[in-house]
Amino acid sequence: MRKLVxxxxxxxxxxxxxxxxxxxxxxxTTPLLVIEFxxxxxxxxxxxxxxxxxxxxxxxxxxxxxxxxxxIVSIPLNTETNFSSFLFIQNGSSDTDQxxxxxxxxxxxxxxxxxxxxxxxxxxxxxxxxxGSEPLNGNWLENAIVxxxxxxxxxxxxxxxxx
Length: 163
Hints:
single chain, mainly beta, five-stranded mixed β-sheet, four-stranded antiparallel β-sheet, 1 helix, 9 strands, 39% strand
């Protein structure tokens, strides 16, 4: 009798699943912020950052950067507040030669319902960067330009940082 009950439970559980219960990889969920780096003196040239490390500016200091190539990275924005703050560290592996800038992105959040399996995604509007630095070193990032104030997908850069 026990095997019959377990079998009936498993059968009903299996029959209750639909393809909507799995979020397809083809569905675009909350996008990452795409940042490109350019030369401050020759703004048409992309410029690699030496040993870049990007950390969330909080007590955990989690490393978050995903390199797309030598001059473009993507980072996740906070989906629960209207700002995200990061530590952009030049020479991140060095114990003596690090230069840290604090970059804060402010934005408005819009939640968009996708479907039952994927639930919601967040789209960011009115993206605005602010560059600060630790008092000892001064800024290594000189300027930030918003290319697209709406972070809807990851197909192109939304921000250019000049150094």
